[in-house]
Amino acid sequence: MIVPDFSREEKLTQRGYKCIAGVDEAGRGPLAGPVVAGAVVFSDAKIVQKLMAAGIRDSKTISEKKREYFYELIIENAEEWSVGIVAEDVIDRINILEATKLAMTTALKNLKKKPDFVLIDGMNTLENFSASQMAIPKADQNIFSVSAASIIAKVTRDRILIDFDKRYPGYGFAKHKGYGTKFHLEMIEKNGPCKIHRKSFSPISKYF
Predict the structure, then answer these.
(1) In this structure, are strands 35-41 and 80-86 parallel, antiparallel, or unpaired?
(2) What is the domain partition of the chain in residue ranges?
(3) Residues 6+ apart with CB under 8 A from 170
(4) How far apart are CA 40 and CA 104, in angstroms?
(5) pTM (2 decimals)?
(6) Cβ contacts of residue 76 below 8 Å, gap of 6+?
(7) Percentage with pLDDT > 70 across the chain
């Protein structure tokens, strides 16, 4: 099990940066629903140590129940946090990479205090956000603020899909969250796509 640490943020603080945000996304791969980004800022190392001891780490490595619990811990203890949500019709229009960057940029702009350094999970920096940035593959596993952002993004998106399940019953969105599971594909084949399916994604695209 990889445990994230706060050393990168501390080194940046020592270099003079005042507001360091971690940012990550959830929902690049699903066939339905939005892509969601979370942005989180921590400045108090003692609080971070407490949260690290609780077991906060990359959202993909923990259960849904723990993600919900950690989500509450993060929003209660972070100096700042926010989300950015880009809907499926925008994903279809601008492609998933650009939509992911837009979600991240939106999350950062939604913070009350503008970060002066951003740690990004992945390989792409954000052209439309004017701050020093570093894109780091697997940052969600290794960098604490990005791990926290991954939980904010994942829980927010899961809640959206659970709500969509009530509006578009029969597809199982509450269970698979829009990913291309066997059941989901069978329901698309049976019922056709619904409003929140991504028309540009295969196999949804064959219906349009």
Answers:
(1) antiparallel
(2) 7-207
(3) 187, 191
(4) 11
(5) 0.97
(6) none
(7) 100
List residues bridging with 54 in a β-sheet: none
pLDDT of residue 95: 98
pLDDT in tens, 27-59: 999 999 999 999 999 999 999 999 999 999 999
Pairing of strands 117-121, 132-136: parallel
**pLDDT (tens digit, 9 = 90+) per residue, 51-105?**
999 999 999 999 999 999 999 999 999 999 999 999 999 999 999 999 999 999 9
Percent helix, strand, coil in the chain (nearest 5)?
50, 15, 35
CATH, domain range 7-207: 3.30.420.10
67, 154 Cβ separation under 8 angstroms:
yes
104: left (phi over 0), alpha (psi -120 to 50) or beta: alpha
Q: What span, in angstroms and rounded, lies between the C-alpha atoms of 3 and 201? A: 34
- Residues 40, 143 contacting (CB under 8 angstroms): no
- CA–CA distance, 31 with 14 (Å, rounded to integer): 43
